[in-house]
């Protein structure tokens, strides 16, 4: 099967933002896409968009913080579309606050959703691919926080570091099997619902802190479609080609351009 032939993919966190953009982009390839998230009603809308783009989609409930939900979701994916070829671990949550300000339950939810859940889902995917001696792709959507840690996001940053460690370990474990493990690391992206529900005061605190530390150089964003196209490039690359890390981010505004002496 050629890399451009229709395949079956699983996309988590597909109810909005980056996940929804990835699902639509895979739909444009004519793929079947199993959409996972807690908000099934929102998934139904994305499923319609995937079908309109030329693919097939199923909206399936998934709570990555619950192992039983992960198994039920994976079983439902296989019952709906048959064995999957591609897993895009995109879902993630962030509770803003300094470490001593967030609750133990909030911290545990971040680690479970952003790291443990994706690991358990990848475990099911790898077992399925290996049992069939099939090639496939595991894509882990990370964050710029791994290269530029941000105060007020300790659990999110730590879990994304862990996710990249998992992806790198799997790259070694799967080398030579035809199963690729790739990190896609986006910077600031819009529109997403990543910060929906955050208190305005804490947003002000974290932005002021990031700017004071030189972390947030500007407030430019890139579209979610940019991340989606990066994922498409990874999963449609010719067999025998592997990516280790695809890092992308928004371009700075013209006012921050460094002027050369000849300009």
Overall description:
This protein has a single domain, classed as Rossmann fold, CATH 3.40.50. The mean pLDDT is 92. Helix 2 links the parallel strand 2 (32-37) and strand 3 (56-61). With 263 residues, the protein is an alpha/beta fold. It has helices at residues 17-28, 40-53, 67-81, 104-132, 154-173, 200-212, 224-235; strands at 8-12, 32-37, 56-61, 86-89, 136-141, 179-186, 245-248. The longest helix has 29 residues, at 104-132.
Question: Could you say what the CATH topology is called?
Answer: Rossmann fold
How would you write the strand order of the largest sheet? Answer: 3-2-1-4-5-6-7
CATH superfamily: NAD(P)-binding Rossmann-like Domain
The total tally of domains equals 1
Largest beta sheet, briefly? 7 strands, parallel
Count every beta strand, where a strand is a DSSP E run of 2 or more residues: 7
Number of helical segments? Answer: 7
CATH class division: Alpha Beta
Average pLDDT level: 92
Helix content: 40-55%
The H-and-E topology, N to C, reads as EHEHEHEHEHEHHE
Concise overview:
By secondary structure, the protein is an alpha/beta fold.
Keywords:
single chain; 263 residues; alpha/beta; Rossmann fold; 7-stranded parallel β-sheet; 15% strand
Task: Give a topology summary.
Blueprint: E1 8-12, H1 17-28, E2 32-37, H2 40-53, E3 56-61, H3 67-81, E4 86-89, H4 104-132, E5 136-141, H5 154-173, E6 179-186, H6 200-212, H7 224-235, E7 245-248
Parallel strand pairs: 1-2, 1-4, 2-3, 4-5, 5-6, 6-7
């Amino acid at each position: 099967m050629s890399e451009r032939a229709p395949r079956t993919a699983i996309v988590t966190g597909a109810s909005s933002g980056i996940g929804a953009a990835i699902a639509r982009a895979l739909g444009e390839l004519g793929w079947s896409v199993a959409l996972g998230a807690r908000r099934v009603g929102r998934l139904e809308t994305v499923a319609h968009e995937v079908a309109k783009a030329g693919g097939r989609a199923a909206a399936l409930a998934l709570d990555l913080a619950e192992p039983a939900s992960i198994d039920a979701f994976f079983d439902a994916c296989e019952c709906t579309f048959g064995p999957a070829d591609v897993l895009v671990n995109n879902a993630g949550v962030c509770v803003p606050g300094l470490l001593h300000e967030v609750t133990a339950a909030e911290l545990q939810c971040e680690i479970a959703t952003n790291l443990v859940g994706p690991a358990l889902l990848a475990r099911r995917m790898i077992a399925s691919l290996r049992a069939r001696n099939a090639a496939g792709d595991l894509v882990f959507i990370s964050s710029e926080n791994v290269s530029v840690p941000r105060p007020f996001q300790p659990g999110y940053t730590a879990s994304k570091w862990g996710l990249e460690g998992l992806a790198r370990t799997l790259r070694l474990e799967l080398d030579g099997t035809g199963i690729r493990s790739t990190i896609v690391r986006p910077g600031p992206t819009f529109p997403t619902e990543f910060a929906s529900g955050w208190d305005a005061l804490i947003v002000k605190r974290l932005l002021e802190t990031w700017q004071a530390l030189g972390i947030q150089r500007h407030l430019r964003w890139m579209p979610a479609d940019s991340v989606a196209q990066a994922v498409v490039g990874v999963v449609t690359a010719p067999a025998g080609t592997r990516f280790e890390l695809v890092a992308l981010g928004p371009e700075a505004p013209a006012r921050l351009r460094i002027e050369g002496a000849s300009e």
